Amino acid sequence: MSKSIKLAILGLGTVGTGVINLINDNLDELKRRSGRDIVITEVGTRRQRDDIDPNIIQNSDLMAAAASDNVDIVIEVIGGTTLAKDVIMHAIKNGKHVVTANKALLAEHGNEIFAFAEAHNVHVAYEAAVAGGIPIIKVMREGLAANKIEWLAGIINGTGNFIMTEMRDKGRPFADVLTEAQELGYAEADPTFDVEGIDAAHKLALLASIAFGIPLQFDKVYCEGITAITLQDVNYAEELGYRIKHLGFAVRREGDGSGDNSTAGIELRVHPTLIPQNALLANVNGVKNAVLVNSHPLGQTLYCGDGAGAGATASAVMADVMDLVRVLGSKDSNNESTNGHHVPHLAFIPEQLSDTPILRAEQMITGYYLRVHAHDNPGVLADITRILSDAGINIDAILQKPAHKLGQVPVIILTLPVVESQMNIAIEKIEKLDTITDKVVRIRLDELA
Question: Is 121 exposed, middle or buried (CB count within 10 Å of its CB: 0-12, 13-18, 19+)?
């Protein structure tokens, strides 16, 4: 009879407790799928819990639990990038496979962690680090392995999606919805990582590395939050047939074919984006996550579901455990355990990772929504459109609203895609016009085509 697979769960917060509950609820199903008994032998916790099976060792020494001879797989759900890194590296050093939901740790230190794991012939699995229960890591590493991924776009932070949905559907201001998100547990007391896009940028760094076979480069992700989005812009976007979503984009740019390769490389960007109202991503609402992948030859595919929560994250954690159970069941010619048949951490074999450059913000190419407030004088619109034309920017639509009581006219302009540096020059010139009364509001626009 095959030996049991023994787990250590380090961290007993929402996710750790969710993993325990999932194993208890689906124990027979897990055994039928894996052919093994899966047993929790240790948990890492600062305080003793009386709701834990007395047969499970409760260990306040996380390093000891990570190296225990009574453990095959270490599940890290502590969070943070300091203690969690030390624990994972210690587990790897002691020959343990690792499952983690820690996107910040992997985005910032994943290159080092994965190399260390390869050197010790173990695997670090991280399905739960991106988009909760949506199996997007497995899809991109395995299901799309024969495809060339051209771009991906994702709603990969549920808090931001909830806020944008409520603002649009109920006409509520940002600050009001954020307070409710905190009360509902969707946002932390300090919501910075969610509303400023940092959480999404961590996830995007992981997705981009898998998509394009590049090392993790979180520090090169352009990141813009949703705190400056107003109901005014939400409503104008709707009037023009668009919705504003907080999206992460990873885009392969091949250059313009003219020999000028200044725009050849990979865009990594997180920002509010206008997308068509009938686009699939435009209709993913609330705290749901979704990732749209465009690949050759398959085309566009959408993956959608719960991006957070105990059940969703535990589901992804245990999917990784099941994969590692199969790894532990494989032997080489010397009857030694091997992970040689397992998919590489970043989908491509380490020696084949690419040094394709990450484009700077001014090299990115998108369409734009511009909101300009001007005095209600003759010729104002002509001046604005002339500046855009001189900068090589093509206008797709213009919406001019009636002047309000201060005599100012809101002018909303949608442009076709343009290199960001050209838009920067145009906006600087527009803001210098005597008739312009405020800073130009810009939000990027993408047709997702």
Answer: middle
